[in-house]
Amino acid sequence: MSSTQEFPPEKQAYRWLMSRAVSARKWLIASIVLGLCSGVLLLIQAYFLADIVHKLVIGSAVRQQLTASFVASFVVVVARAACFMGRERCGFRAGGQVRTEIRTALLDKLQRLGPLATAQHTAGGLTMIVVEQVEELHEFIARYIPQMALAVLIPIVMLIIVFPMNWMVGLIFFSTAPLIPFFMALVGLKAAEANRKNFKALKQLGGFFLDRLHGMETLRLFRQGQRAQQGLSEASNDFREKTMGVLKLAFLSSTVLEFFASIAIALTAMYLGMSFLGYIHFGAYGHGVSLFTAMFLLLLAPEFYQPLRELGTHYHAKAKAVAAAESILDIINQPEPEEHKGDLCFKARGAIAIDAKGLTVKAPQTEQPLLKRLDFSVQPGSRVAIVGPSGAGKTTLVNTLMGFYPFKGRLSVNGQCFAELSLTSWRKQLAWLGQSPLIIEGTVFENIAFGRHINRYQAMDALARANGLDILDSLPDALDSRLQEQGNNLSVGQAQRVALARAIALEVRLLILDEPTASLDPDSEQKVLAALAKLPKTTTIITVTHRIHQIMAMDEVLMVAKGQLVAAGKPHQLMQDNPVFKQFIQGQERSLDNA
């Protein structure tokens, strides 16, 4: 039976979080040990304080006789502070390590799933999960997990000390301690549900805001700014109400915990006071209660419940973390296509050759065919155009070649079965350039390097091969000039050439272009096409395009219509022999795009 059937979502999320925490166990163990040392030092501190009070009141000691006790108490306080600082540092290290691993696993999963799966989520929603909700796991790892151990260990150590001194006080501690986690769990069940709703509202708010921010220009053009503002107000108000619900439960939980702890401490103080005055004669094994014993036990009373109260405080961190983990697991547990689980390294040299037999692609959700039994070949070093009307399946085909879409049939690259290849190994061989170049906020060099290990010479060489050196003339600091997000301080043509330089900065054996010049003016288009023409024959180029002059300049053309391959061959030959292709070209000639 699967784990999904065995456990409800919150249990699965909790078990998954605990399994991820194992990687940081050395920091968690260190945090627990330091917390336990702090608890033992607390016992020693209470002993010195009780001894000082007893000697001053009962023994009539002078202050000079207590110097050693005062110094010892000060040393214990400093040692406790050091343990607390070390415990916090170890917890922070554990939380940071687990958050980094989970965020890396999330990003790797999203990369493996590809655009087909990520398109089911809004960009803002994914951003909230990867950034905000992963951050919510920190308190659970750094504080709640160590505190679970300390909430058991420290009271046990104290009971071992207390019971031999006074069984009645030990009984009060032992019988009242379970009430705190019991009521904490009752309130926590409601808090978990509230946190789950709160995270859902936060995800919706983040996605709504980011998507509207990206589409601000379109909203203004269609005069929908007021409507977007109203929607944002409603989403933020919903998030506010759910947040206040979570806070209400948090305050209720704290009140309940403080109430039971205060009752238990009051009972202990009443018993010790009556025993010391001689009104109660049981609990001390017939020896009576001295001032030292009463003072020592009274100092321990609030500290006995403190680990449990701290666990109650961090219990809400658990509720938040479990709710966040459920959203994370929704992505982590998404099944990957069986066709994309190969692990063989791509070893062939030279330009890429592609062979497809009966290539079929279906939409995962609806099983609707997107591509139907395509048979084609791409020769190494050739320039191939993929053409066809909108919605014909061109983008689906290139995404399949990049390993993003599941497929049926036979697909091989340089004689190797595509399904058996490691996608990471395969994608190192190719580069992709779309019609809307991605420019990040950073320097020109950072945009070309894009996280890869290349030097400045390689960046300049790539920019030169992309016909983009003139871009540096308009920027103050050449490669070190800052570019704005989405390339707002560049023209579209300049941004496209920076993106092209990024694609060819390292050796690339398959370059896939998706309408690379669709948004460019004629001058920028010529610069991009001239740069592409200079690429060596060791690079196979596949271009999705509607431009007639680009199509006719290609070595081969693959025409797709309604998911089927309707034409394949040299463009000039197809103009003579294939009426479907000829009609398509004539239609393009009449369009405004090619006027």
Largest sheet: 6 strands, mixed
* Main sheet strand line-up: 6-9-10-3-11-12
> Would you tell me the overall average pLDDT?
82
Radius of gyration computed on alpha carbons: 34 Å
Class based on secondary structure composition and strand pairing: alpha/beta
- Unreliable runs, pLDDT <50, ≥5 residues? 1-5
Determine the fraction of residues in helical runs and give it as a percent range.
55-70%
Q: Please report the total strand number as a whole number.
A: 12
Distance between the termini: 63 Å
Shape: elongated
Strand fraction band?
Answer: 5-15%
What would you say this structure looks like, in words?
With 595 residues, the chain is α/β, with parallel strands linked by helices. It is 63% helix and 10% strand. The strands form 3 sheets. Strands 6-9-10-3-11-12 form a 6-stranded mixed β-sheet, sandwiched between helices. A hairpin with a 2-residue loop joins strand 11 and strand 12. Helix 3 packs parallel to helix 6, helix 8 runs parallel beside helix 11 and helix 15 packs across helix 17. The two termini are 63 Å apart.
